Each structure stands twice: as C-alpha cells, then as structure tokens.
Amino acid sequence: MPKKGGKTASKAGEGDADAKRSKTEPASIPSPFNFESPDSLFESLISPIAPKDFFQDYWEQKPLLIQRSDPSLAAHYQSLFQFADLKQLCGRGVFYGRDVNFCRCVEGKKKVLNKDGKVNYNQLKKDFDQKRATIQFHQPQRFKDELWRIQEKLECFFGSLVGSNVYITPQESQGLPPHYDDVEVFILQLEGEKRWRLYKPTVPLAQEYSLEPEDRIGNPTHEFTLKPGDLLYFPRGTIHQADTPSGVEHSTHITISTYQNNSWGDFLLDIVPGFVFDSMKQDVTIRAGLPRKLLMDVNKSDYAPKQLSGFLRSLADKLDCGQELRSADMKKDFITNRLPPYLGGGCELTPGGKLPKLDDKITLRFKDHVLILVEPHHEMTDVSTEMAVFVFHSLNNSRAVHMMGAGEEDDEDEDETLKARGLRFPLSHTEALKQLLTIDTVLVKDLRLDLDADKENLALSLWTECLIAVI
C-alpha cells in the first residue's frame, strides 16, 4: 500500500473537482453495495459470506475466493474503473511514478518501463500494446466517486486507512513477480480475466513488502481464474502472482488494501513510551538512575534484563489496575490522513441548521470521522505540563492526496498541521465531548459543563466546524 500523508487541501465538497469528475463517472448502474452504514457496506462487499464467518474463518488466516455469475454485478464492477477511463484521466494531468507505473515481470524480476513526466494516453496505449506491460494506476479513489464512497465507508468499518490500486495487464503478460504485501488485500475483478496463484506465506502477517524467488515458494496452494464480479481476499504475507491468460484482450482488477502498520506490535510501539512517561511521575523506582557505567560495561549486561523485567511487571500491574493509555501517533495519523466524508452530488460542507442556543437540541455529525484525545498542551512554556482535550476530525482532509505520501510542502511543523484540523478545549470539557460522541441527541443546556456560557461556546465551536447540527 503506497505511503500515507498529505496536508489539508480542500473540504469534502470540492467544487472544481466535481465538475471535472463527472466526465469520468459511468452511466447509472444499480449498485450492489449497501451504503447505509459501514457494516452494511462490508457485508454487501463480501456477500454471500457473512461478516461473522469471514472474521472467524478467513481474516488474517487464509484466502477467500468468491466467484459470482451475476451479469449486473459484473457490469457494476466494470463501472468502478475500466481501461477506457484512462484517456480522460490522462487528459486531466497524471504523471509517471506518482500516478502511474508501467511495469512487467521479466525472468522473475520487476522491470519498470516508466517514461518521464506527464502521461500521454496515446503513447501509453501504444506502449501497452507493444511492450505488453502492466499499467498500475495509483489511488483511483482520488478521481472515481464510487471508489471514494466505498473506501471512505471501509475506513469507518476497519478504523484503518484503506488504499487502492488498479492493474491493467495485456494477454499473456504478468506485471509483478511473486511477492507478498504488508496489507490485507481485497481484489475485485473488473474487466477480462486474471489467472492467480497463491502460495503458503514464508512470513505470516508480514510487516513489509518483499519479493520471493520462485525456488523458495514451492507449489501453489490455490490456483484459479478471476472473472468480472469475482472477489478475492488474502491476508498480508500471502505470496502471490497473477497473469492474464491468452485469448483475453486485457485484464483489469482493483486491489483494495488495509491494515498497514495496524498490528498489536505497532500499537505497543505507539502507547508504551507515553505509558512509561506517565508511570515515572508516580513511581520513584523507575526514576532511579541507572547503575554507574551500565551503558559502557558489557559485564553488567545480565543485570539490566532482570531490572527491566521487574519494571515491565510493575507496568503490567498498573495496566491491570486501569491506568489510562494514550496513543501518541496512530490515532492522529489515521484521522488526519483518511478520506473526508463522501457527501455526493458536489454538495458543500456547511454548518448544520441555525446557531445553537441553550434550549436547542444538537447532534454530533460524522461521528465516525471524529476523534477525542487528551494530550499535553504544547503551547505551554513553563516547566509544568498542562493537559487539554483535542477534537480532531477528517472533514477538511483532501481526497486529492489520499494515500499519496508526504510531499515537500508537508515538512512544516506537525503541530500547525494538526491545529488546522482540530479544536483544543480545556480538560474540563472532556465529559461533555464524550457525551456528544456516545448519545444521539442532547440539549445544549444538558451538556456536562458547569457554566451555561461554556456550554454555548462549546456548541458554537463545534457548529462552526460543521461537527454538530441543530435538530
């Protein structure tokens, strides 16, 4: 899955983009996807397999192949992205490397055949026909509304970033050598046919992408051909390769991927430093200095593990007693890099209803896109650290840079980026904010704050940010 990143560029209802997007959207075909909720969308994606059975029997365990003979489903899958879309997309300005890779598997190795600069469709089509290489289109949800809608709902469902790539491969050709990925993969066959071979993982639930030579992977555990409307899932670490068989003009499939760097190990790396820091405030034994020359003397190497294991048991006891854990980066990384809400129809994001007053009933909008964190207030300059409650949200995230990695303009101060997307409140507002997250509606005057002025100011701040609506 390509790198994450990108700063806020525009709100969810980007006017210019909507006018241009309409040219790439297909004629209306009844959707097989149920967008009522994140749960219903995922259920419709893997139908007829029930989500409960999927997570019990397949998720992070083994591949799942769903082969369907449904012409209407195949037609809708094709509408998600097809070869013909490339002509219009190239006309909008896409570039080799950033948006498109052109590659082929040659003697077990990936050969990249990219040109420089902007992609010219006529040249790309000519190269596709003559060089028999695969066109890899990065993150098509930036241009295709239905994919935006699907992936935004899946990000709500998984609580993890969801990226995608489209692969278009001519007949009797293979784009990539055998490899495994660091993401959970859902493949939707859109056009033509693709022959797949899956192999037993050498690194189950792998943390990184890697090529695997043919002489290491053995015989396939699964061999099959995907046709339009079919779906394939396999866990990260599953070795795979695929080619377009003869007699098929070309194959187009989309790979939807998630759960990159979203393991228990990643979570521990995220929370343990803050947990230890908080514990040091309460436990003098952890604040005690290291034995003299411990970092220099190899003869004391067996002493440190004994002490550390004791500290870790003490930390585990604190955890069992309910000491709060604070995520340092994972939660903010997700909320600030995910897709904005899909509004549809070129709608602009506006505050909901009239200005909120004490007697008004309000509701929190886009709950799946809102995150509350208690963190140090970094603007404090004195020795003591004051805590504050922050509301981060993804309403202002830019669809145009979703999953495209950080550019040079993103090297500015991280705090400035996050402040642009979040609101800071005194720690005393924590319970009122949790109240809004956990119940459907509440009167402003019933918010869990002591002063009416604080209640109105909180409601007004959230309303201005388009986060609440007056019922």
Written description of the protein model:
With about 475 residues, the protein is an alpha+beta fold. It is about 30% helix and about 20% strand. It has 15 helices and 19 strands. The strands form five sheets. The protein has an eight-stranded antiparallel sheet. A three-stranded antiparallel sheet has the order 10-8-12, with no helix packed on it. The protein has a three-stranded antiparallel sheet with strand order 18-14-19. A hairpin with a 2-residue loop joins strand 2 and strand 3. Helix 2 crosses helix 7. The two termini are about 40 Å apart. The N terminus is likely disordered. GO terms for molecular function: histone H3K36 demethylase activity; histone H3K4 demethylase activity; iron ion binding; peptidyl-histidine dioxygenase activity. It catalyses: L-histidyl-[protein] + 2-oxoglutarate + O2 = (3S)-3-hydroxy-L-histidyl-[protein] + succinate + CO2; L-histidyl-[ribosomal protein uL15] + 2-oxoglutarate + O2 = (3S)-3-hydroxy-L-histidyl-[ribosomal protein uL15] + succinate + CO2.
Largest sheet: 8 strands, antiparallel
The geometry reads as: globular
Low-confidence stretches: 2-24, 415-420
Structural class: alpha+beta
Strand content: 15-25%
Helix percent reads 25-40%
How many H/I helical runs?
Answer: 15
Spatially, the strands of the biggest sheet line up as: 1-11-7-13-5-4-2-3
Main location: nucleus
InterPro entries: JmjC_dom, NO66-like
Biased composition (Basic and acidic residues): 13-24
Keywords: Dioxygenase, Iron, Metal-binding, Nucleus, Oxidoreductase, Ribosome biogenesis, Transcription, Transcription regulation
